[in-house]
Amino acid sequence: MTFGQQLLFFFSAIGAFNGLLLGVYLLFIKKQKDLSHLFLGLLLLMLSIRIGKSVFIYFDRDLPKIYLQIGLSACLLIGPALYYYIRSLESRDKSDLQSWKYVFGILTGIILIGGYFISYAEFPYLWNHYIVQLIYIEWALFIIWAGYEYVKYIKNKQWASQTHVSSIYFSNVIIFLAYLFFLIGWVKGAYIAGSITFSFLLYLNFLFFFNRKNEVISKNGKVNKYANKKIPEAQADSSVSKLENLMKTEELYKNPDLKLSDLAVKMNISSHQLSQLLNDNLGKNFSIYINEYRINEACERILNDTHLKIEEIGYEVGFNSKSTFFTTFKKIKNTTPLLYREAFQENEEIRCKLS
């Protein structure tokens, strides 16, 4: 290879290599994983396999067909990984994501079983004229569905929490379009351009996250400078009254995605001031404060709305999941929602008998 080709190989391959390492880290090494980490790790892993295949075939046209098959098969999982990654961030109930097991199970079965009986090496014409097109159609459909979930997500989030999802979603769209344009013959250089684009976008996202982390550290440093400044008593009493009135009239606690910053905006004060108000004047943090409102309303509805299932009440008062609702209820009321309802009903029966 010429020096120019060596540079092209380096810059197109380095993204795939580092994406592969990051994907393996998120899938198998990172502690305290949640579903979003797993889907993001799978997304990076599949993209890296697809990109790696493109790099090697661009510089070696005689690459064995098995490598082409592996690279193309990885595309079947890129779209679903992107879709479920965004959906895992947007969904209020993780039980809504159970379908991912069936989707990935079916697609993995198609890749392994279908690839074994209809291999690229034995059926190149079938792959080049039909299977590849079907793979790209599946990829495109999941990108569209992921776009639908992306729109739902950004409608309910502040800009700061939208940017990382936007960068990941649109990076995938750009990479897909680069390969699609090559497939349909619109741009001949788009094949290797997809690999270079992946490297560029991967490091651009790294730079974005690094700068954002520094901003957070800098912001926290400024906040700590004022940590010892107490809110004047008269101002604190007024703010507490305003806060309680706001919670009762607008029922903000029913929003399962409510954050400290959201409530601070409503109060027209900084997040630090609100946190200080809650801790210094009410003796509780934001999570406990909000959950107490949720549990108090849940208690009323458990006793009055007997036609509703207990878990339905939990969702309606602002909890993300049944388990979180039950755990929080037990922590605050020292009993379970079901026992709370049964105890009330028993007391009512005793009262009726005595009267």
Shape: elongated
Largest sheet: none
Number of β-strand runs: 0
**Rg, nearest Å:** 27 Å
Mean pLDDT: 79
What is the string of SSEs from the N terminus onward?
HHHHHHHHHHHHHH
The rounded distance between the terminal residues' Cα atoms is 97 Å
> Approximately how much beta-strand content do the residues carry?
under 5%
Q: How helix-rich are the residues, as a percent range?
A: over 70%
SS summary, helix count:
14
Class by alpha and beta content: mainly alpha
* Uncertain parts: 222-227
Question: How are the elements arranged and paired?
Answer:
Layout: H1 3-29, H2 35-59, H3 65-90, H4 99-117, H5 124-155, H6 159-183, H7 190-225, H8 233-250, H9 260-267, H10 271-281, H11 286-304, H12 310-316, H13 322-333, H14 337-354
Brief write-up:
80% of the residues lie in helices and 0% in strands. With 355 residues, it is an all-alpha fold.
Walk me through what this model shows.
The protein is mostly helical and 355 residues long. Helices cover 80% and strands 0% of the residues. Helix 2 (35-59) runs antiparallel to helix 3, helix 2 (35-59) packs antiparallel against helix 7 (190-225) and helix 9 (260-267) packs across helix 10 (271-281).
